[in-house]
Amino acid sequence: MDNFNFYSPTEFVFGRGRENETGKYVVKFGGSKVLLHFGGSSAQKSGLLGRVEESFKAAGVSYVKLGGVMPNPRDTLVYEGIKLCKEENVDFIVAVGGGSVIDSAKAIAAGVCYEGDFWDFYCGKARIQAALPVATVLTIAAAGSEGSGDSVITKVEGGLKRGAGSDFLRPRFSIMNPELTCTLPAYQTACGATDIMAHVFERYFTNTTEVEITDRLCEAVLMTMVKETPRVIADPDNYEARANIMWAGTVAHNGIVGVGRSQDWNSHGLEHELSALYDCAHGAGLAVIMPSWMEYVYKHNPMRFAQMATRVFGCPMNFENPEETARKGINEFRKFLVSIGMPINFEQLGAKEEDIPKLVDTFGIGDGKTGGFMSLGKDDVTAIYKIAVNASVKLNP
Amino acid sequence: MDNFNFYSPTEFVFGRGRENETGKYVVKFGGSKVLLHFGGSSAQKSGLLGRVEESFKAAGVSYVKLGGVMPNPRDTLVYEGIKLCKEENVDFIVAVGGGSVIDSAKAIAAGVCYEGDFWDFYCGKARIQAALPVATVLTIAAAGSEGSGDSVITKVEGGLKRGAGSDFLRPRFSIMNPELTCTLPAYQTACGATDIMAHVFERYFTNTTEVEITDRLCEAVLMTMVKETPRVIADPDNYEARANIMWAGTVAHNGIVGVGRSQDWNSHGLEHELSALYDCAHGAGLAVIMPSWMEYVYKHNPMRFAQMATRVFGCPMNFENPEETARKGINEFRKFLVSIGMPINFEQLGAKEEDIPKLVDTFGIGDGKTGGFMSLGKDDVTAIYKIAVNASVKLNP
Q: Residue A256 and which of A10, A115, A246, B105 are 20 to 30 A apart at CA?
C-alpha cells in the first residue's frame, strides 16, 4: 500500500425530502448570498428548484439564479457565472443538478477567486488556491461530483474537454434525495450507473500490490451496481434500489475506494474525446471504451482481472488459464452493459472509425505515454479505439 | 434505507513516516499551543514522542505534555487535562496512542469548552456544543477513535464505563503510520482486530432492509480482517497486512459502513461491563460477548446471519435450513477468534459466572429494553452472559 491522504469533508445529507433543508445547511456552512446554478427546465418544472428556493427564503438566505448548464458543461457559461458572482457579491454556490451542473459550479467557484482566466486550472497552467464554497442538490447518480474535488469542463472553441481538481472544490454539503432520480429515463440512469462503475474500475486496476481493503471496497460498490441497476431499469420508481445506487455513486468517487494505490484513468480520458467530438453521454462513451480498454490491457496483469471476474461477476476461476477467467469477466461486464441498454461499440454510440486519428490526436499525448496500470502510447490508444469499433458480447471469450 | 447524514471531515494522513508531519498539520488546522497527550512510557521509549515533538518544533508549535493514560481511560486524568489546558491556554490537543488516549483527549477537549462537569456528557446530562480541536497519531488499529466522534471514559468512583459522541469530537487530522503498530504484542493486535470486526457487526445486524451498499461495505471490511489478521499474528512486521488492518479499522468506525440503517450496540454495552469489572482488554471482552450475543439473537433474522456466514466466511448456504448456515457462520467467527489467540468464554477471559447479576445490574437497563436489532431486557442480557460462560467452538453447530 502506498502512502496517502484521504480527506472527504463533505456533509452528505441523504434521504427523502432532504432538499427542503438546503437553506438551513447553507447557513450552517456560512453562506448568505447564493448563486443557484442549474441546468434546463426540468428542475423548474418538477418543482425541485421551487422547493430549494423556499428553503432559502425560510433560512433568510438571498440568492441569484443562473440556469442553462448543458451536458458536457461549457466554459462560456462558466465565464458568465464568474461575472455574475462578482457583480452580486455571491459568497456560496449551490448546484442543483447532476455532474455537469456541479462541475460548472465548481469551475465558477474557483474562477471567482482567481485573477486570471479560470481555464488556466483546466489546461494545467495554474493550481487552484481558493474557491467559493460549493454545495449540491444532486439529481442523478453518476459523476460522483457531489463528493469529489474534481470538475470537468469543455472549451467550446476547439472542443477540448479537460479536468481540474482540488480539495477547495469539495462540496461543503450535498443533499441527496433518491426520489429526485426516479423520473430519470432508463438510458440516463444506465449511463450514470456505467459512470459509477467506471470510477471504481479506474481505481481497481492498479500496479500497487497488497491493497486488500480497497480491493474489497471497490468490489462492494461494483457488486451493488450489478445487483441494483437492473432493478431500477425494470422499475424506475424503486426508491430502495435508487438509494443504493445513489450512495454507491458517492462512495465510488469520493476517494475512499482508491486510496493507497496507483490508478489508471485512461478510460475516462479516452472517453472524453468521444463525448467532446460526438456530444454523446459520458456514461455511454464509457460503456464503449472501458471494456475495450480492459480487453487491450488485461494481459498486463491477468490475475487482477481474474479477481474481478470471480469476485464481482461470480465467474468460476480457471486455475489452469487465468487469462480465460479474465476475458470472461470482461465479457460479463459487456453483457451487463447490454442488459441495461448501453452501447458497447462505435456504431451503437454513433462514433466513426475514420475519426480515430482525430480522437487520438486530441487525446493529446503526442509521442509520450500515459497510464497508472499500463502505460499507453499513441499506437496503444489507436488499438483501443479500434477494439471499440466492433466490440461485441462473445459466446466463448 | 433510512434517511441519514454522513460527515467525516477528518484528514487521514496515512503511511510510513507520516508522524514527522504532525506539526505541519497542527498549523494547517489552526493550532498554536498543543496539549500532547499520551499513555505509558512506550511512546517515549520508541522515540515516537520525540519525533512528534521535533515536528512541533520544526513547525513553530509550542506544547505541554500530559502522559499516563491507562487502558479504559479514567475520568481522573481527564479532569487533570482540562485544568492543564485552561492554565496553559492550550488551543489544540494531539493524542499520541490508541483508542484510550484518543478518547481521553476528546473528553478533555469537550471539558475545556464547558462550564460544568465534563461527566455530564457521558452520563447523558448534557450535549457537547463545542470542543477544542483534536488530532491523533495512532499507534494501534482497534477503536476507530481516530476517525469517529465517539469517546468512552471510565468513572473511577463506581467503575462506570460510559460513552459520549459529537461531530465536535471528530479529529481534525489523524496520522496513521502502520509501522508504529509492528511492535504490538500478538494479543493486543488480536484484541484490536476483534474490536474492528465488532464495530462492523454492530452495524451489520440491522432491521433495516434494502441496504445492499452498506452490507457489501461491511463485508469488505470483515473479509479484509479475516484475511489480514492471521498474517500479522504470524508475522508481526508485515507492513502491508498492518496497513490493511489499520485502514480497515478506520473505515469500520468512521460511520461509512453503517449509514441509513438501524444498528445494535448491545455487544459493546455488554462488554463494557466486563472490562469495567475485570479491567480486561475491550477486544478480549468482545471476543467473548459478541458471538454469544449472536448465538442468542440470530433467530430474530436467520437470513441476515446466513448472509454473513456465506459472504464473509464462505459457508455453503443451506437453502433448506438457513438457521444452520447462520449457526455455522457464528461458529466460524469463534474459530477465527480462537485462531488469533482470543478468549471466547468467561474462564478464558478471567470472568466469573457468579458476577452475572452484578454485570446485568451495572448494564443499567433496569426493567427497560434496549437494542436496534433485537430488543433485549434484563433476562435476555442474563441469558447472553450465561451463553458466554461456557462458549466453545463446535464440531456440528
A: B105
Over the stretch B220-251, which tens digit does the pLDDT of each residue have? 999 999 999 999 999 999 999 999 999 999 99
Complex prediction ipTM: 0.96
Chain A CB within 8 Å of residue B228 CB: yes
Q: Do A228 and B212 touch (CB under 8 A)?
A: yes
Residues of B in contact with A12 (CB under 8 A): 4-7
CA-derived radius of gyration, chain B: 21
For residue B33, the model assigns a pLDDT of 98
Mutate one of B212, B235, B244 to test the A interface: name it (highest A CB count within 10 A).
Answer: B212
Q: What is the dihedral of CA B44, B48, B53, B54, to 10 degrees?
A: 130
Partner-chain contact A213 B256, CB within 8 Å = no
CB contact under 8 A, B210 and A251: no
Same domain, yes or no, for B114 and B191?
Answer: no
CA distance A17 to chain B (A): 9
Separation between Cα atoms, residue A390 and residue A187, nearest integer Å: 21
Give the pLDDT confidence of A331-378 residue by residue, as tens digits. 999 999 999 999 999 999 999 999 999 999 999 899 999 999 999 999
Residues near A177 by beta carbon (within 8 Å), at least 6 away in sequence: A14, A15, A16, A17, A18, A19, A137, A138
Do A170 and A192 lie in one domain? The reply is no
Whether residue A4 is contained in a domain is answered as no
Total of domains in chain A: 2
Among A107-121, A317-331, B149-163, where is mean pLDDT lowest?
A: B149-163
The one-letter amino acid at B99: G
